Amino acid sequence: MTRKTPDFFYTPVILSRMKLYNSLTQIKEEFKPISEGKVTMYHCGPTVYDYIHIGNLRSFFMGDILRRTFEFLGHEVKQVMNITDIGHLVSDGDEGNDKMTKALKRHNMEITLENMLKIAEFYADAFKEDLKNLNILTPHVMPKASQHIREDIELVTKLEEKGYTYRTSDGIYFDTSKMKDYGKLGGIQREEGQGRIEENTEKKHPADFALWKFDEKNGWPSPWGQGFPGWHIECSGMSMKYLGETIDIHTGGKDLKPVHHNNEIAQSECATGKQFVRYWLHGEFLNINGEKLSKSKGGNITLRTLEEKGFSPLALRYLYLQAHYRSPMNFSWEILKGAENALKRVYRTIRELKEKTKEKTLGENNSFVERFKEALEDDFNTAEALAVLHTLLKSNIPNEEKLGTALFFDRVLGLQFNTINEEKEELELPEEMKQLLKERAQAREAKNWETSDVLRTKAEEMGYSIADVNGEQIVKKKNT
Ligand code: AMP
Ligand code: ZN
């Protein structure tokens, strides 16, 4: 059966009631875009040195919710997410070893620019696949840092001309003491230092950071010598190129706020003399045993790990939805199982609704839509939006409205209600039946057709029919 999508009854509405928590002002503010009805958004993307973990994915999921919400509310969104595909040599927080170099070593590859880009390409593809599997809409532009060296050089040149830079033996640095309000995001103090700073005794100040790092062997030519752009400058360069000197929203996980984002602000605002970003949004962590999930702490759980354990990526999406993006979220396999079970129950209800409303025209229920919108307008409260979905599914409103509204909500939730097939119901089978199927599969593998048939008859007595399709046993509950 072909089902009408909800597009035909969708009327976009531009709302000015959107409130979001701005890390810059540290309050929940009304969102006022630069251009009415349009939103420009930049998300700090991954460094593609390995498969990304489900902690990283939570922060990219947050970007997806922002985009879907704005679009749901009728805004036109332009979304950019960078891919850091070069060794910044100045690793996170300006300390430690370079991640891309580590990746090359892991793969036993010689450290060359060419190999670096090769590895990066591989993991960038894997990253894009992860986004698709989590039903994260592909950002409109996904620029690679390696293809924007010119923009970085232009920015550093501007900063140099304005007197914000100085040279050390290993690179060109930004002089934070020249910027009056350096560290305004989250209010870090220049005098305190940042605690995670690379050791460079030539730096004038602990908070100063590299704009360009020399590397005689690899890297790109520049007016200052061959090398690499600093990590922070890449994001400024790409954000400005695709979205302009001032943008509406910039996001990232909260660990990026003190150093990376303050440095992005510093170099961008000093170069242009304009505000760089109007609203900074930071996502809380996905934790495991109370600690931030990270590779170094042994929490290297990727979407592949989930799939190996038999979980659907959408179960993870459902889990993410259950918490507000500014609330820490704890991960365990039991918690994920709980989310998957809850999602299965939702799917079952949607399937039943599809079955009951075949050939009927769907509609939306204004009161539920209003409640859903209110939840999202309150700083993207997905936990509340999910609660509205559950109340809707339990309500007594007509089935056509219930289904239509749920499909409408799914524009933001992204749980793929549209593709749930009413004919192919996934059953929650009793243990006895699961065991029977296992035995029947073994019998068929051994070409023991007699046992296979006996087991089919037994299943029928238990109230199930089995059809063998392409080597798979398709089970249906028989109508009673
Ligand atoms: P990276 O590739 O390390 O720069 O990280 C990419 C993104 O993932 C950044 O926005 C980080 O803030 C974010 N991130 C890293 N670990 C976590 C975590 N455990 N929970 C949520 N976000 C995270
Ligand atoms: Zn960034």
Task: Give the topology.
Blueprint lengths: L18 E4 L4 E4 L7 E6 L10 H19 L3 E6 L17 H8 L6 H21 L15 H13 L3 E3 L3 E4 L34 E6 L12 E3 L1 H13 L3 E7 L3 H16 L4 E7 L2 E3 L2 E2 L10 H6 L4 H9 L7 E2 L2 H24 L9 H12 L4 H13 L4 H15 L17 H15 L3 H13 L2 E6 L2 E6 L3
Parallel strand pairs: 3-4, 3-9, 9-10, 11-13
Antiparallel strand pairs: 1-2, 5-6, 6-7, 7-8, 11-12, 14-15
Helix pairs in contact: 2-3, 4-5, 4-6, 5-6, 8-9, 9-12, 10-11, 11-12, 13-14
This protein binds adenosine monophosphate and zinc ion (ZN).
Structural summary, described in words:
This protein has 480 residues and is α/β, with parallel strands linked by helices. Among the domains are: 19-288, Rossmann fold (3-Layer(aba) Sandwich), CATH 3.40.50.620; 431-477. The protein contains 14 helices and 15 strands. Helix 6 (257-272) links the parallel strand 9 (247-253) and strand 10 (277-283). Mean pLDDT is 89; it is low at 1-11, 89-96 and 193-197. Bound molecules: adenosine monophosphate and zinc ion. Zinc ion binds next to loops.
Question: Could you give a short description of this structure?
Answer:
With 480 residues, the chain is an alpha/beta fold.
| Beta-strand share of residues | 5-15%
Helix content bin: 40-55%
> How is the largest sheet built, in terms of strand order?
4-3-9-10
CATH architecture of one domain: 3-Layer(aba) Sandwich
CATH topology of one domain: Rossmann fold
User: Count the helices. How many?
Assistant: 14
Low-confidence stretches: 1-11, 89-96, 193-197
SSE sequence, one letter per element = EEEHEHHHEEEEHEHEEEHHEHHHHHHEE
Name of the CATH superfamily of one domain: HUPs
CATH class of one domain: Alpha Beta
Let me know the number of strands. Answer: 15
